[in-house]
Amino acid sequence: MRKKSSILLTLMLVFALVLTACSSKTETSPTESSKKNAANPVKDRKNELVIGVSAEPQNWDPIDVFLLDWSTIATSVFEGLVDRTLDLELQPGLAKSWKYLDDKTLQFKLREGVKFHDGEPFNADAVKFTFDRLLGEEGQKGPQYSNYSSIDKVEIVDEYTVNLKLKVKDPVILTKLAGYGAVIVPPKYIKEKGDENFNNNPVGTGPFKMTSYKRDQEIVLEKNPDYWKEGLPKLDKVVFKVIPEASTRLAELQTGKIDIMKRVEVSQAKTVKETAFLELRDVGTPTAFALRFDVAKKPLDNKLVRQAINYAVDKDAIIKEILSGYGKPISTFQSDLSFGNNPDLKPYPYDPEKAKELIKQAGVKEGTSLDVMIPGNDGNFKEIAQAVSFYLEEIGLKVNIKTADGTTMNSDLIPQGKAGHMYRQGWGGWTLDFDNTAYLMYHEGEFWNPSFKDEKVERLLTAQRNTVDQKEREKIFKELTEILYDLAPELNLYSAVDLYAVNKRVQNFQPPHEDRLRLEEVSVK
Amino acid sequence: MIGYVIRRLFHTVLVVFAISLLIFFSIRLTGDPVSVMLSAGEPSKEAIAQLKANLGLDKPLYVQYFIFLKGLVMFDFGESFRSGGPVIDLIMDKAGATLALAVGGILVSIVIAIPVGILSAVKRGTFVDFFGRVFSLMGISFPNFWLGIMLILIFAVNLKWLPSSGFDGPQNLILPSITLGMILSGILARLVRSSMLEVMNQQYISTAKSKGISDWAVIIKHAFRNALLPTVTFIGLQFGSLLGGAVIVEQIFSWPGIGRLIIDAINQRDYPVVQGGVIFLSIIMVFVNLVVDLSYSLIDPRIKSGGSGHA
């Protein structure tokens, strides 16, 4: 009997050791030993690129969706009148040039000789059709319509000239035209084949055409041989594989099944850097993250308390320790890529003494408790919330971290002022102009603004919408950001940095700031 | 028998009706799809109202429900808010992959668990039994995301024998099936063991043995056959729940299954897809139960379908 139990004990120990060996391997780097100097596993893929993405939009019609996942892929298929460079500067797209005829009329000269993937010509008719559709019955069923509601109509001047008539002055219209909803679509194709067909079989003028779409699995793009930019694109084929799980995406990259991995997690950065045939690329994004205050709730109705919280939290330490440095400090609720960002404002410094003083001045009792709401599925942010909680306890505030389903938070809790004293919000501002963020967050009665109001802020928000003079707007935003900095309607934390892992066979790839992969110049070795 | 089946089909209609009520109203308690769709842009109150009207969400709830129910009778679940296509197409698109994974998982669990369970029972108290029980415990306690990722690291990244994701061929089915099957086989092996032990203590087993029938013949023909009943019930129920409940495994292996479809739809508040997906799965579940019940009379002729114990 004794002998038997000692055998069993030994077996159990061996088993435990095997398990430990396995699990410790995952924690560090799964492939450290085997891959450090391993040869590039991609062979014989020819002039083809494979990209691993975490999700796809389920619908390719530009007026039906409003998702970054759409833009990642569809930027290669569709083009707008106005385009943006990789550095986010506006540049001519399908329009060669434009000018303001008056404050509410923009005239566009269109590029000649451009064809859609189905062979039909791009011209003024296509532009008119696109905007009639976006602003008409079909467009009103989708999420893009409200982004373009300042447009009244498109008038055709001649085959390659159109006038865009606005209902109201819209200083952000050009940048909106570089947005997803305003890409030009083929009239004949849509009329003949119908809208539903277009959802799954998109046709645009872009450098690649979509030749196959397997929902939730794979999207295949092939070179558009008639593309209007001479000599481009360089690749014959681009395949997007939908792989929702980050560790699986990394496994596919390590085994050479994909060439570029999107949405690398901070914890995976080390593995990528240590793998000889891979390269880690990071890029700043327009998305800012903050814990916003519900200023209707005591004691956050007091500016001094809001400022104190901003002084109390060491944002640099959070960025360094929790985000491994992949984040940038911000002074207002926007990134440095946004028009209207004020570089003269420096984020609130970490000064717990000053914070304590302000709390005392505001007459807030020691141990006052604050509810902080964060989405339950964001593990990274949970750590950040815990760090914030630690800092606030240092100045005598008590923090209860509460989690909620992210979608419910965005669709109901925040707009209805039910998201606690402070809540996580990430905001990209798709127009890359502070107008979008500031108007929605601080204008009284907006969906995203449950409680904030300030007369001066209202006045400036209206003023910047009433002029198309960008210099003037910049001045207004300077004043606005200074006021917001002082009023501190949120605890600004950081702007996000995106990580891409790229196989070294890929040449000329530059990661985009705003998820829109531009692949026409990319080639492979 | 036929009368029984008809009665059961009638029950199915009632079940589906009850589920339609439950899912229709519960999904509407979780938040507004329009604000989810518009939240990235400039959702003015007018734009929200307009989109609601266009999606038919401005109608009174009971009207919306009747529209849904009317479609349901024709097996028309409506159109997805997000993809714009018919929900039934989305479901059918995933049905093959879902079924393949569920069958794969069940097969792996049967192949592993039944021999382990039988051996464990027959060699009760020995080293074999100990190993079998440890194995079951492991199966039950391993989280499937951990097992899935381990299998990917070993068989895809290091050994490069199998693909880690996708749905290109039978080789893609191996790792997800093992992940699902391993977890299931833990519970199944325990079940087989305990039902075998129960049967082995019965008198007819001793009688069979005393007649001089060989040990293994007794075990397989007499004991296992009688221990099969709870096993089949369990496998049937698990099969039903795997159809929609393999979300984590689908996620890890990028498997295009119905579970993932429904979870994504819940996150997007794509009501028609959630409703359609849940109804579809519940219909399948009810049928699987029916088949399991009917199979009892095949396994044990003493049970007649329609008997009060198994309705």
Topology summary:
The complex is a heterodimer of chains A (525) and B (311).
Chain A: H1 2-27, H2 32-35, E1 48-53, H3 68-74, E2 82-84, E3 90-92, E4 95-102, E5 105-110, H4 124-135, H5 137-140, E6 151-158, E7 161-166, H6 173-177, H7 187-193, H8 195-200, E8 208-214, E9 218-223, E10 237-242, H9 246-254, E11 260-261, H10 269-274, E12 278-293, H11 303-312, H12 315-321, E13 327-328, H13 352-361, E14 368-375, H14 379-394, E15 397-404, H15 406-413, E16 422-427, H16 434-442, H17 455-465, H18 470-487, E17 490-503, E18 506-507, E19 523-524
Parallel strand pairs in A: 1-10, 1-11, 14-15, 14-16
Antiparallel strand pairs in A: 2-3, 4-5, 5-7, 6-7, 8-9, 9-10, 11-17, 12-16, 12-17, 13-17, 18-19
Helix pairs in contact in A: 11-13, 16-17, 17-18
Chain B: H1 2-28, H2 33-38, H3 45-54, H4 61-73, H5 87-122, H6 127-141, H7 144-158, H8 171-200, H9 203-210, H10 215-245, H11 247-252, H12 258-268, H13 271-299
Helix pairs in contact in B: 1-13, 5-6, 5-8, 5-10, 5-13, 6-8, 7-8, 8-10, 9-10, 10-13, 12-13
According to CATH, what is the topology of one domain in chain A? Dipeptide-binding Protein, domain 3
Q: Give the strand content of chain B.
A: under 5%
Task: Provide the residue-averaged pLDDT of chain A.
Answer: 90
Tell me the helix content of chain A: 25-40%
Overall mean pLDDT of chain B? 84
The greatest inter-chain interface is formed by: A-B, 65 and 56 residues
Strand content of chain A: 15-25%
Termini separation of chain B: 12 Å
Helix content of chain B: over 70%
Instruction: Assign an overall shape of chain B.
Output: globular
CATH superfamily of the largest domain in chain B: MetI-like
Let me know the CATH homologous superfamily of one domain in chain A. Dipeptide-binding Protein, Domain 3
- Parts with pLDDT < 50 across at least 5 consecutive residues of chain A: 17-35
In the CATH hierarchy, what is the architecture of one domain in chain A at level 2? Roll
Roughly how many Å is the radius of gyration of chain B?
24 Å
CATH class of one domain in chain A: Alpha Beta
